[in-house]
């Protein structure tokens, strides 16, 4: 048979349970009451006045922190600090200013893209190739040379202010001035000029003759054996 007894206890039984517990705070029974009670706020008691000797120790004024003026700004002395630093680096790396004048835009004989350049180093073999790009970035100024070695295209960035670079020479000027600043189209097989070793060898042979004073001799092979007897014409000293 179904149970007719209610499952939950009536509300008045909870009042009896709470009254039976003496240690329980009477505020716990407040939510169960239906009558609204208004509580009056308690007035705060002002703190007692402390003696003068104690108040001086407790309420001391904050200690004044010593401040210093900011350091002098370098912008007042060097409005363009980066340009001054780059100029100092270039002066250190190129004391004579020869490389700066060589790649200066005001120089009429400045190397241009399309020229064949020869770069020699303090250690290692020299490298020659067609100049594809000239990147002017102050101390980081560099040139990009391309050559074909053993049927393989080789490119090298060379920084002109590097201490490892001994010299940079113009082997051959371009027949026609390029209308582009970067000749990257020479990488394609259609426009690739191939190896420039033959042109460089001819230039080095001519330079050796100029330095030895054997320019204009009838037999250049004999000038190596007896330079004093073979000196004639323009290169005679």
Q: Summary?
A:
The protein is an alpha+beta fold and 237 residues long. Helix content is 27%, strand content 16%.
Tally of DSSP helical segments: 8
Overall SS class: alpha+beta
Q: What Rg do the Cα atoms give?
A: 47 Å
Helical percent range? 25-40%
Cα-to-Cα separation, first versus last residue: 141 Å
Structure description:
The protein has 237 residues and is an alpha+beta fold. The chain is built from eight helices and five strands. It has helices at 11-20, 52-58, 74-77, 81-93, 98-102, 197-212, 220-225, 227-230, and strands at 116-121, 127-135, 142-149, 152-159, 165-172. It has a five-stranded antiparallel sheet with strand order 4-3-2-1-5. The radius of gyration is 47 Å and the shape is elongated. It starts with 10 loop residues before the first helix and ends in a 7-residue tail after the last helix. Mean pLDDT is 77; it is low at 32-36 and 222-237.
List the helices and strands and how they pair.
Blueprint: H1 11-20, H2 52-58, H3 74-77, H4 81-93, H5 98-102, E1 116-121, E2 127-135, E3 142-149, E4 152-159, E5 165-172, H6 197-212, H7 220-225, H8 227-230
């Amino acid at each position: 048979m179904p149970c007719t007894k209610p499952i939950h206890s009536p509300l008045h039984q909870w009042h009896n349970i709470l009254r039976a517990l003496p240690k329980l705070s009477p505020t716990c029974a407040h939510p169960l009451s239906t009558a609204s009670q208004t509580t009056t706020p308690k007035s705060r008691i002002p703190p007692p006045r402390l003696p003068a000797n104690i108040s001086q120790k407790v309420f001391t004024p904050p200690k004044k922190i010593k401040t210093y003026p900011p350091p002098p700004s370098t912008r007042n002395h060097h409005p363009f600090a980066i340009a001054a630093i780059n100029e100092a680096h270039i002066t250190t790396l190129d004391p004579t200013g020869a490389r700066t004048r060589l790649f200066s835009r005001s120089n009429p004989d400045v190397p241009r893209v399309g020229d064949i350049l020869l770069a020699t180093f303090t250690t290692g073999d020299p490298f020659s190739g067609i100049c594809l790009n000239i990147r002017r970035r102050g101390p980081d100024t560099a040139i990009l040379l391309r050559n074909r070695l053993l049927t393989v295209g080789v490119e090298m960035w060379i920084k002109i202010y590097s201490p490892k670079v001994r010299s940079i020479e113009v082997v051959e000027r371009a027949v026609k001035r390029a209308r582009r600043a970067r000749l990257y189209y020479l990488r394609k097989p259609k426009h690739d000029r191939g190896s420039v070793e033959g042109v460089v060898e001819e230039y080095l042979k001519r330079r050796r003759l100029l330095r030895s004073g054997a320019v204009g001799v009838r037999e250049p092979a004999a000038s190596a054996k007896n330079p004093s007897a073979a000196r004639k014409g323009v290169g005679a000293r």
